[in-house]
Specification:
heterodimer; A: 332 residues; alpha+beta; 2 domains; 4 strands; 59% helix; disordered N terminus; B: 344 residues; alpha/beta; Rossmann fold; four-stranded antiparallel beta sheet; 12 helices; elongated
Amino acid sequence: MTTMTNAQASPATTGPARRGPRLSGLNWLVWRQHRAAFWTLIVGTVLAAGWIVYQRGQMIDALRALGWPGHLSDGWDMKLSSVAFTTTGYSLGFLPIVLGVFVGAPLISGDLENGTAKLVTSQSVSRVRWIATKLGITVLVVAVGTAVLAGVFGWWWSPVKGGENFASWTSGATFDNTGPVPTALTLFMLVGGVAIGLVLRRTLLSMVVTFGFAVVVKIVWSYFRLDLGNVVTITTNKGVLTSSPALPNAAYEVDRWFTTASGKLYGWGTCVTEPEAKVQGCLDAKGVVGWRVDYLPASQMASMQWFGASILLALTVALVAFILLWGRKRIV
Amino acid sequence: MSSGDSMWSDDVTDFRDAGLAGAASGGAGGGEESAIEAYGIGKKYRRGWALKDCSFRLPAGRICGLVGPNGAGKTTLMGIAADLLEPTAGTLRVFGSAPGSDEANRRTAFLAQEKPLFRRFTVAETLRLGRELNPGWDQQAAENIVRAGNVPFDAKIGTLSGGQRTRVAFALSFGKRPDLLLLDEPMSDLDPLVRHELMGTLMAEAAEHGTSVLMSTHMLGELENVCDYLMVIADGGLRLAGEVDELLAAHTLLTGARTDGETAGVPASLTRHTVVEARTSGRQVTAMVRPAGPVEGVWQAETPNLEELLLAYLRSPQAPPLLTASSQVSDRAGDRTGAKAVAA
């Protein structure tokens, strides 16, 4: 029975002194098992953030030549190169898919496939706690990383936000890479990948299925992104040939029509086939008095992003609940 | 007793009529703690029932061998006890609590057949896993098992040989200090020397701490020296369960000459006994019987050894099962068991 009292670490297990906080229990296990992935995420975040900060510096130099930080010369957004910005934004757009496929899908399916799930759950810890810890640490690392990238990318974009010809706020490069959207999109695809892996129990298969899932989510999101806003309508009554409605700066035009005094709408191509001299007569005959334009003001961007992100986060929470419920069953 | 229990209850009667040691061991489950109690458990996969209507009791402190042909349901039974599988029917208790409860989880260690370990962990990290995740961890015991095999602590698991890996997996199971150790084919990839040494460790640890062990194996010869309790399952059902001594004492191996005019099969003089298996080669008849009274006729009788007994039961799945008194569960969950059995 003397062995019972000798539970202290013996020389064999006393490793070299480690830097940083000392993890214990499941936290230690999850970090140790996935440390390569976590360090890749952390280093990747730092490198990408460094790249963005450097590129912003380059852009600021170019902007200075155009009058920044004072009044920018007219047509500055045509003169400023947006290649680096849009390429970076485009690349960041793939991040949710990549993380879903390479971090989410194998997270639990890997353990199920090679039996280590049996190993862990036959220790004195419950399945649900183990799954929750894995999910929790991974979500934390990914959420912090994407939030940092969203922050610096938004900071890069902030000086040129008003430029209609630089990168529109409605494009994926800006809308999906700033504010809460990257974090929400990534977490949804990540947790989706975890759930798929838990159900399919095979690493490669769940990575393939997660890829399909993530691409579909991305397409659906891109398609409905602008439906998140409240369309604002502007109507004029000063004719259509000489006047045009004044939209706020960087507003996104959803649609425009000719309108009559009673509100009847005609397409803006109406009467276009008439000879030029007869166009006004044609429009008068139909009673057209002005324009009606539906648009989304740039000021709605943040609220649209938060609205969309909250939908995604709600779906993510539902997926987490599913994972924990599924994990209560005998999964091995 | 419901109809579903008849197979067992007939047998119980049969056994007790024979006036054998079972009665002497003092009643089913009386006072002694149970490591495992199963009430009519069954597990159905898509292909059919892997385990069907199994009711048994494993008293605490025994080293029990679990024997059966491949696919007989050994791993399924262990999986249910280790909370890796959910039984389709019936219930199982580990020290009175449900598998998967904190209590059962803490008191049970399970070593799966494939001995899964994290390949990128070092041996020391693997032991740390045990220390971090088990409140009653015994680092010294675990390290001793690893040291005995000269396995370097800083070696990655992926670089170890199969036997070394099994040793580390063993260390992890022992370090948990379980009250019930479930070992699924623990020795299958070890050389005879290591097998012998690890079996010695197992026996010593189990004896010192009163650990109950349920160990499935194909190595029949090995059982006799190690196990004091035995369970045989075949075709998803329990064929034999109880103390090794009692089981052996309950059987007689008869050898005799076939009388002329008798065709192959059970000799007429044995029909009043329970014949597990009768084999004829030339004029010689060998029969494994559970005698119900004195055996008449010209027979040479001897007590079988464990291997002979096991082979007889494994070869004859139709032989009526035998569960000694200590391996039977009381009727506490009888209603449930009966209903499940009928439904099955």
